[in-house]
Amino acid sequence: MGLVVQKYGGSSVADAEGIKRVAKRIVEAKKNGNQVVVVVSAMGDTTDELIDLAEQVSPMPAGREFDMLLTAGERISMALLAMAIKNLGHEAQSFTGSQAGVITDSVHNKARIIDVTPGRIRTALDEGNIAIVAGFQGVSQDKKDITTLGRGGSDTTAVALAAALDAEVCEIYTDVDGVFTADPRVVKKARKIDWISFEDMLELAASGSKVLLHRCVEYARRYNIPIHVRSSFSGLQGTWVSSEPIEQGDKQVEQAIISGVAHDTSEAKITVVGVPDKPGEAASIFRTIADAEINIDMVVQNVSAAATGLTDISFTLPKAEGRKAIDALEKNRSGIGFDSLRYDDQIGKISLVGAGMKTNPGVTADFFTALSDAGVNIELISTSEIRISVVTRKDDVTEAVRAVHTAFGLDSESDEAVVYGGTGR
Ligand code: ADP
Ligand code: ASP
Ligand code: MG
């Protein structure tokens, strides 16, 4: 008997009908002879609604209480799903993250999983139950407080449980048919990818393709858990994310030169103006940011003006951390020594990802040509071995993604990509 972990995102369980539809699918997997563990997200946009509610009560809610509030969303869906399965005549039990043994560090709102001890899940399975686990949450090892794993964190719960239970596969059910060459909400001619390597998927996820969370792919690569991303609305094969290419018929799926185009409008840019051009300055700016537990993305330092010996340093970070970063830098202004800070949240990032970039000269040139032909101005550039990213004005992002997608021959000739549900929020 195989063990499968299935994760259903919020759009798949948006209402009672959705929950009943998903319940049928889960029962099918059980009837096929598998032990089934299900990780479920909060219904529809529940998490966003809870966040809005918290903001109306307090502009900066305490992390502990915020997490306690947000985890309520997944508690609702897990209980309803277990009820729907029982109604179909099968045994199911729901578990919170804490009950399922998801142990995290104590960084509220973006905790990391440090251990998974799924004893109760094993027992439930051995007794013939389908186990339903609330995604996106855990319990901190030291304080025993309830934590959340950051937005989209149910993906990580699913892969972590799959690793701990030695599952054959982790299926991620969502509102599109798999991982596409670009977000199907932006590029109608995006193409479904049959197989993608962990490396390329990691870069796409880190660059804003929210179909899979970056940490979840990191986890899957570390424990070599194959992920199958597919739609809960259709019966189609989705995208396999794994270390080795899959077979299709009697052929192996080839590694594409370019896997896809990702975009991200969730970041902001901070420019530290008038920084003395001497050793230690960048270190003290980024130490300040790190001490505030903020992750940054791109960094660029301008050439210093010869007359003044001053320079500007810009970096990007999640918009949600903008206020905290500005406050931390302001507090340290005399220690660091700078003139002023500029904050810009009207930026967007476009990234081209593909392992073939390493060996195909001209990819960078073609990328910049496509952006220039589309009249898009570039503000920051960063690259890795298999990715090129640029920051542009937010209003240019859609145009830029489409232009790059077309320029690299990624547009599909046939079907338009289907988006089955969700609000894209
Ligand atoms: P869920 O609620 O199931 O977790 P998400 O909204 O987190 O779903 O992720 C699915 C969404 O990811 C899709 O609806 C799509 O708009 C978006 N997306 C972004 N980039 C891609 C991509 N390259 N391939 C597929 N979907 C993508
Ligand atoms: N409900 C959480 C969120 O909306 C976690 C998840 O869906 O993965 O971010
Ligand atoms: Mg998601």
UniProtKB/TrEMBL annotation:
Molecular function via GO: kinase activity
Known pathway: Amino-acid biosynthesis; L-lysine biosynthesis via DAP pathway; (S)-tetrahydrodipicolinate from L-aspartate: step 1/4; Amino-acid biosynthesis; L-methionine biosynthesis via de novo pathway; L-homoserine from L-aspartate: step 1/3; Amino-acid biosynthesis; L-threonine biosynthesis; L-threonine from L-aspartate: step 1/5
Catalytic activity: L-aspartate + ATP = 4-phospho-L-aspartate + ADP
E.C. designation(s): 2.7.2.4
Cited PROSITE patterns: ACT, ASPARTOKINASE
Annotated CDD domains: AAK_AKii-LysC-BS, ACT_AK-LysC-DapG-like_2, ACT_AKii-LysC-BS-like_1
Keyword terms of this UniProt record: Amino-acid biosynthesis, ATP-binding, Diaminopimelate biosynthesis, Kinase, Lysine biosynthesis, Nucleotide-binding, Transferase
Pfam families noted in UniProt: AA_kinase, ACT_9
Domain ACT intervals: 270-346, 352-425
EC top class, as a word: transferase
Gene3D superfamilies: Acetylglutamate kinase-like, VC0802-like
Record bears the keyword ATP-binding: yes
Family from the record: Belongs to the aspartokinase family.
Alphabetical list of PANTHER family matching this protein: ASPARTATE KINASE, ASPARTOKINASE
Summary of the function given for this chain in its UniProt record: Catalyzes the phosphorylation of the beta-carboxyl group of aspartic acid with ATP to yield 4-phospho-L-aspartate, which is involved in the branched biosynthetic pathway leading to the biosynthesis of amino acids lysine, threonine, isoleucine and methionine.
Official protein name in the record: Aspartokinase
Organism of origin: Streptomyces similanensis
Organismal lineage: Bacteria, Bacillati, Actinomycetota, Actinomycetes, Kitasatosporales
